[in-house]
């Protein structure tokens, strides 16, 4: 999604080649684009309008990075989005890579649109029966694979972008934000290291999303620390 935003901004820049680069204008256009894509029902920045992307959904990893961008101008809005996104975390600590909006029927196994390759909620509901303790922390349908682990880095960067309280010269609100997200982030880290531990010390395994969709790929499992692929 962020790549798509950058491409849109580049396209705008190419249309104005005669004019010098205006950093303020680029920042304004980026802020406008992010604001236009906030899904109020899901609580974060979505990939785009439903008609453009095929269905209503939120990708937590992308939405978290978008919140980090928003924090440059509005810390409170960014912090609120991060806390809302972390509410989609499962009881075992997993943060799903895909959240379906309430407008997506639960019985769809595949999305009837040529604008997306994502499967529907029923695809994951079938897989959910293979796991114990499938208690849901949210009433919305989600995928059963985890989002890329960017949440902790995003939370820290947003904390660093928080303004100082004028009276005390400290970041009281920012510290409160870290206190709110600490337990969800701790659960996420425990989940990752209990289910994704690799062969080398300190390494984690990741399963490529396309493998989970049932698509054959030449290399689906890799070590995040640069290990060799297998699968």
TrEMBL record:
Keywords: Signal
Mannosylglycerate hydrolase MGH1-like glycoside hydrolase domain mapped to chain residues: 63-209
Pfam family, one: MGH1-like_GH
Signal peptide range in chain numbering: 1-18
Recorded coiled-coil stretches: none
Keyword Magnesium: no
GO BP field: carbohydrate metabolic process
Keyword Nucleotide-binding in annotation: no
Source taxon at top rank: Eukaryota
InterPro entries assigned to the protein according to its UniProt record, in alphabetical order: 6-hairpin_glycosidase_sf, 6hp_glycosidase-like_sf, MGH1-like_GH
Designated name of the protein: Mannosylglycerate hydrolase MGH1-like glycoside hydrolase domain-containing protein
